[in-house]
Amino acid sequence: MPEYTLKQEGAEEFEQARLVLLEDVCDPLTARQFDAIGVSQGWRCLDVGAGGGSATRLLAERVGDTGSVLAVDLDTRLLAPFASERVEVKRHDLLADPLPDGAFDLVHARNLLMHLPARVDALRRLLAAVRPGGWLALQEPDFNDVALSPTSESWRRTWSAFCDAAVAGGWDPAYGARLVSDIEALDLVRRHADVVMQNSPGGGVRARLFAGTLGRFRERMLALGATEDDLDAAQRLLRDPRVTFRSPTLTTAWAQRPD
Predict the structure, then answer these.
(1) Nearest CA among 157, 160, 168, 119 for reference residue 143
(2) Which of 10, 37, 22, 5 is nearest to 192 (CA)?
(3) pLDDT over 90, % of the chain
(4) For residues 51 and 73, is the Cβ–Cβ distance under 8 A?
(5) Average pLDDT score over residue span 181-200
(6) Partner residues linked to 246 by β-bridges
(7) Which of 32, 97, 106, 192 has the greatest number of beta carbons closer than 10 A?
(8) Strands 249-256 and 87-91, how do they pair?
(9) Are strands 68-73 and 44-48 parallel, antiparallel or unpaired?
(10) What are phi and psi of 196, to 5 degrees?
(11) Per residue in 25-40, pLDDT tens?
(12) By the 8 A CB rule, do 221 and 161 touch?
């Protein structure tokens, strides 16, 4: 498995700032997802690849004092402040470490599967942790339609280098487009998916989030032939309010394990 491209080690402050922007984009969709499922008092929930912990917090608010949330990630430093009688934090590798079988009312993962080399196996592992009658809740991006308008040659070269670096780092930048199909291949019922694409001005939250992601990939992109000038030009465009940024399409999907 390639080394995780967005690990915190050595870039803690930068990655924490990027995760805050990611949460600003994703949390409203996740909150609607949990509300649609009906997450409530007493539920036992698992948040896999919990990152900065915002989905864990949303779950903890809903399950109350009679419920529980297990938040797991390869790096739990940002999750540690959430640990409480209601929330357990644990280091966990989804593809290597076991999960309790059929133990959770809800198993949630966001922006996780795109990074994994064995996505079908990962989905099976997530589903196995859901109790009969419980729910699997997922969210993944699709970068296929990311664009800037007006565009430039430097942006096109930067975009191509980003895609190359993402794939070389083990990403599937287009996995969100396959998420629904992969869920349909599982033994699940009451399937639902929301697909959201948004255009917003340069300098907005979504453009700044992508600019931060480009920053994390900068060295990898340079190693694959990108130039400093092109990368700097792309960053200027992403900060320019006269530019329209079409952000990654987000697929938020959930389905129920049969009783």
Answers:
(1) 160
(2) 37
(3) 90
(4) yes
(5) 96
(6) 147, 199
(7) 106
(8) unpaired
(9) parallel
(10) -125, 125
(11) 999 999 999 999 999 9
(12) yes
Residue partners of 151: CB distance under 8 A and separation at least 6 = none
Which residue do the tokens 């859901």 mark? 130
CB atoms within 10 A of CB 89: 23
CA distance 43 to 63: 5
Per CATH, the homologous superfamily of domain 12-256 is: Vaccinia Virus protein VP39 (3.40.50.150)
Interval 146-179: pLDDT, tens: 999 999 999 999 999 999 999 998 889 999 999 9
Provide the greatest CA pair distance for the chain: 57
User: Residue 16 — very low, low, confident or very high, per pLDDT cuts 50/70/90?
Assistant: confident
Residue 4 has pLDDT above 60, yes or no: no
> DSSP per residue over 220-256, as a string?
HHHHTT--HHHHHHHHHHHH-TTSEEEPPEEEEEEEE
For residue 83, give the amino acid letter.
A
Burial of 5 (0-12, 13-18, 19+ CB in 10 A): middle
Decide if pLDDT at 7 tops 70.
no
CA distances from 125 to 53, 98, 150 (A): 21, 8, 43
Q: Copy the structure tokens of residue 225.
A: 């032939």
Which residue, 153, 99, 152, 155, is CA-closest to 127? 99
Task: Name every residue whose Cβ is closer than 8 Å to that of residue 232 and which is 6 or more positions away in sequence.
Answer: none
Rounded Cα distance, 221 and 165, in Å = 6
Task: Name the pLDDT band for 2 (thresholds 50, 70, 90).
Answer: very low
Buried b (16+ CB within 10 A) or exposed e, 155-192: bebbbebbbbbbeebebbbbbbbbbbebbeeeebeeee
